Amino acid sequence: MKKKKIVGIILLLAIWVLPSRAQVGEQRHNLAIGFNGGINLNSINFSPTIQQKNLMGINGGVTLRYISEKYFRIICGAQVELNFSQHGWDEYYEDYPDLQYTRKMNYMEIPLLAHIALGKEKGMQIFIHAGPQVGFFINDTQTINDAWNTTSTNYLTIEQHDKKIENKFDYGITGGAGLELRTNIGNFLVEGRYYYALSDFYKNTKKDYFARSAHSTIVVKMTYLFDLKK
C-alpha cells in the first residue's frame, strides 16, 4: 500500500511539473497572485467505520499561479496555494439521535496543482486543477454532550474520543474544475474541488485500533488573482 501511495504522488508531481516544462505551444510568462476563500464539507474514512455526517469548515489563503504556454485554445500552467483549512468529523447515530460528538482539526495546507484551461485569454475560461497536497496539523477541538454519560454505548465505537492526533503530517491528492473570468481589473475564479488523503492521522499498525483514519473533503471556493507579469 505504501509503495502505491508513493508512486501516485510521483505521478501527480510529474503532472504538476509538466505544464511549466512543455514548450510545444506559444510561450506565456503570466505570473499572478491573489487570495482564495471557501468552505470544506468534511468526513473521515474510518476503519472500523464510524457513522457521521458532513462537517462544515472554512478554507482560505493565498494563491500563486504561473501560466507557461498556450497550445491552440488550451492554456497550461501551475498553481500553488498556502491555505488555512478546517477538517474533522461530526458523528451522527440514527438509533441515538441525542448523542453529539464533533472534532474540528485545523491545518496549514499546500496544494501543488497543474492548471489546464480552455477559453479566451480575456473573457471566460473553463479550467481543471489536479495534483498532490500536503498539510501540517496545527490544533484541534472537540465537542461532546452529556447524553454520552446517560446512554449505553456498548455497540458504538468511542476509541476516537479524546484520542490525540498521532500523525501531524497529512498528504494526498486533490483535483477539481471551475470557471474563470479574466478582466482588466483581475481574474475571478469559482471552483469545486475534492481532496482524498492518502495518510492517516492515527497510527495504523496491527496493534492499533484504527486501520484507516483519513480525510475526505469537498471544497467549494472563490479566488481573486491579479497579474504581476503578463
Task: Walk me through the structure.
- With 230 residues, the chain is mainly beta.
- It has a single domain, classed as Beta Barrel (Porin).
- The model has no long low-confidence stretch (mean pLDDT 89).
List the defining traits of the structure above.
230 residues, mainly beta, eight-stranded antiparallel beta barrel, Porin
Describe this structure in a few short sentences.
The chain is mainly beta. The protein contains two helices and nine strands, in the order αββββββαβββ.
Into how many domains do the coordinates divide? 1
The low-pLDDT segments are: none
Name the shape in a single word.
elongated
Query: Which strand-content bin applies to the residues?
Result: over 45%
Radius of gyration: 20 Å
Compressed to H and E, one letter per element, the order equals HEEEEEEHEEE
CATH architecture: Beta Barrel
User: Can you tell me the CATH class?
Assistant: Mainly Beta
Overall pLDDT: 89
User: Helix- and strand-based class?
Assistant: mainly beta
Strand order of the largest sheet: 1-3-4-5-6-7-8-9
